[in-house]
Amino acid sequence: MSDYDDAIRLDAGDGAGRRTGTFSEDWMIGNAVNGGFVMATGLTALGQHLATDPAEQTAHSDPVVMSAYFMTASAPGPFAVTTEVMRCGRKLSTGQVSVSQAGPDGEPIERMRAIASFGNLEHVDTLKQSTPPDLPPPERCVSADEAPPEFLATMRFLERLDLRLDPATAGWALGKPSMKGQIRGWLRVHDREPDTTLLMMALDSLPPVAFDLGILGWTPTLEFTGHIRRRPAPGWLRVSLSSENVGGGMMEEDASIWDSTGALVAQSRQLCGVRISSGRNG
Amino acid sequence: MSDYDDAIRLDAGDGAGRRTGTFSEDWMIGNAVNGGFVMATGLTALGQHLATDPAEQTAHSDPVVMSAYFMTASAPGPFAVTTEVMRCGRKLSTGQVSVSQAGPDGEPIERMRAIASFGNLEHVDTLKQSTPPDLPPPERCVSADEAPPEFLATMRFLERLDLRLDPATAGWALGKPSMKGQIRGWLRVHDREPDTTLLMMALDSLPPVAFDLGILGWTPTLEFTGHIRRRPAPGWLRVSLSSENVGGGMMEEDASIWDSTGALVAQSRQLCGVRISSGRNG
Question: Which chain B positions have a beta carbon within 8 Å of A222's beta carbon?
Answer without folding.
Answer: 64-65, 92, 117
